[in-house]
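Objective 1b of the project was to move from sequence-level analysis to a structural picture of ligand recognition. The entry below was assembled by the postdoctoral researcher (A.K.) and checked by the PI before modelling. It contains the amino acid sequence of the target and the SMILES of the bound compound, pyridoxal-5'-phosphate.
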Amino acid sequence: MPRTRFLRASLREVEPYTPGEQPKLPTLTKLNTNENPYPPPASVLRALAELDGDRLRRYPDPVALELRRAAAELYGCAPENVIATNGSDELLRLVLTAFVEPGDAVVLPDVTYSLYETLIAIHGATMTRVPLRPDFSFDEAMVDTAGALMFLCHPNAPTGQPAAPALIEAALERFAGVVVVDEAYADFAERSYASALPRRHDNVIVLRTLSKSYSLAGMRVGVGLADAALIDALMAVKDSYNLDVAAQVTATAALRDQAAHAESLAKIKATRARLTAALRALGLDPLPSQANFVLTRMGSRARARSVWAALRADGILVRYFDRPRVDDCLRISVGADAEIDRLLARLEVHLASAPG
Ligand SMILES: *Cc1c(COP(=O)(O)O)cnc(C)c1O
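Corresponding predicted holo structure:
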């Protein structure tokens, strides 16, 4: 953390989260933060353009009812089962605020979305990390681990591996605390738990974001689906006006244009298959992904780092995680076809001269 003598003692050792680089140079090929390569549909841009001054002059709806109605329709529940937040990152913080006492344990896999660890540390909770299996699947030992809350990312980041129904069911039956199923990438996966689980269990919240599959990362909108009692608790601890008018209006329009959404998903899944096959043809070892990124083993840590740096010098950004289990990998977001072609061409060149 930054140093100032005023900083809370308990924050002095906390590592801040490092987001992927966000340089704004238009010439860059940005495949490092899993944004959608396609713009939001015309219906969404129109809803934004039609916002009038009066809507901006007034405070937004504090409970985002229209947006929650749209989400409820989509997931087959009631608005009472939905909370809307400023990105699902806000919701990750809210579940800690509402359900975890500082000092309590939070259970999570190792490796997963690293923001969980930062938020847990800031909150003053402790972490119990359960290693993924060597093939990067979840270890069922997680569900019998003591804790007030569990983070389960489906499909997991940065591996793109799904959580099997048996694992989810076991967690809901045996884990003592709240189970957070983070479905940031589930629209790209074979299955989602968003419709079924909150109806049958009162100890689960499913998180969705509009940042990835709906092309709205810049708007910052997430939703949570859960039993109404869990939602009430989360509503009670959020900021009153956590979601601005533009975000509410665009997100509502986006959820209501499922035809455009399906089109975007189909393009990304087709490019994902092509990217995975091409990486394999280059002699690499990509994991079959259910997300809008592909994690590929590069052969060694030295090779991963060298290729990452060489791509970066070409203006092609991909993600490298310097931590055990994934430090020999690169994570590549599924961009537009031309971006992936550019990546593959340069990758081939760099692999020829990279260390073994
Ligand atoms: C991108 C991402 C989020 C956050 O999404 P926002 O809605 O943009 O805050 C949450 N969880 C995972 C695993 C993600 O990759």
